[in-house]
Design goal:
Length: 313
């Protein structure tokens, strides 16, 4: 089943016929609380949701505006969690938190902030949606806490290193990443696909296009640490509740710049397509296409993402 929030935050089911409004099942809640209510009560509500999805009138896709399916989620994110097409050995796990205020939905606009960034990158990622609360979840029980999955883009401002270097990773906690937490830096959606309909989440194709140009194109089989391992590690750092999310990291071989005027589409097998626009009031420009310098640096472990990039002109 594919669950959405639409228009003013009504919960719905995405079907082949359109969007079916299911808000009457969770009244008086809408928005984030309504979606969390569905997640927490899904075993009870699933037959009713299925009946509505099958029989109720569906709203045409072009008549609704999709929202982020979990607009107030706690956002956990794994870092360096791919083997870069098998070219890197798994490294020790690390991660970070992103501000809830950075979440936007499909069809929204990402505004690049006035900061001295080397480059702004897109990171297309599979996102875990938690169905039950947990703290120090053991790896063997981790998938029991997964409700479903969605698409997410971890928009990243690559900043120059601080004077004198430093800034090493602290692998004992999950700090908030300020340079990944600007407003709009967490596009999420278009829907939540429930775990029973996703297939093997570690065998999914992840693709992202910028203005029609395919950039990231990888499979989640390239994960360095499994979903269960990542959940166990992340929840040892911070607890989660139903409706929180975990970004699983990205394969960096397809990264490229985001810049003014870009239209971005992201798609994952069995989930759907997340789309957004990009604007930059400063009209900064970077070379188009894949950032091959960053791709090589990540493959070889010779540098941080975007460390050698700078705006043109």
């Amino acid at each position: 089943m594919k669950l959405v929030l639409f228009n003013e935050g009504r919960p719905g089911v995405l079907t082949g016929r359109g969007i079916v409004d299911v808000s009457k099942l969770v009244l008086p809640f809408g928005g984030h609380d309504g979606m969390c209510s569905i997640i927490e009560r899904f075993d009870e509500l699933e037959p009713k949701l299925a009946a509505l999805a099958s029989d109720a009138t569906a709203l045409p896709f072009d008549s609704v505006t999709l929202k982020a399916p979990l607009p107030r989620a706690k956002v956990l994110a794994m870092g360096g969690n791919y083997r870069e097409n098998g070219l890197r050995q798994p490294a020790p796990m690390w991660g970070f938190l992103k501000s809830t205020d950075s979440i936007v939905g499909s069809g929204d606009t990402v505004v690049l902030p006035d900061v001295d960034a080397n480059i702004f990158h897109h990171e297309a990622e599979l996102v875990v949606v938690f169905g039950t609360a947990g703290d120090h979840i053991p790896e063997a029980r981790a998938m029991e806490h997964v409700f479903g999955f969605t698409c997410g883009v971890d928009v990243s401002a690559r900043m120059p290193p601080p004077p004198g270097g430093g800034g090493g990773m602290d692998r004992t906690r999950m700090p908030v990443s300020g340079h990944k937490s600007y407003n709009g830096f967490t596009p999420l959606g278009p829907c939540i696909t429930t775990r029973n309909e996703i297939g093997d989440p570690e065998q999914l194709d992840v693709k992202l296009w910028v203005s029609g140009e395919l950039r990231p194109d990888y499979n989640t089989s390239d994960l360095a640490h499994s979903i269960a391992e990542s959940i166990a590690w992340a929840t040892a750092m911070t607890p989660v509740r139903a409706g929180d999310v975990l970004f699983m990291g990205t394969n960096h071989q397809g990264l490229g710049a985001l810049q003014d005027g870009d239209h971005v589409d992201m798609e994952i097998t069995n989930i759907g397509r997340l789309s957004f626009e990009v604007t930059d009031p400063l009209k900064r420009r970077w070379p188009r296409g894949v950032d091959e310098v960053t791709a090589a640096d990540i493959r070889t472990g010779s540098g941080a993402p975007g460390a050698k990039a700078r705006p043109m002109g």
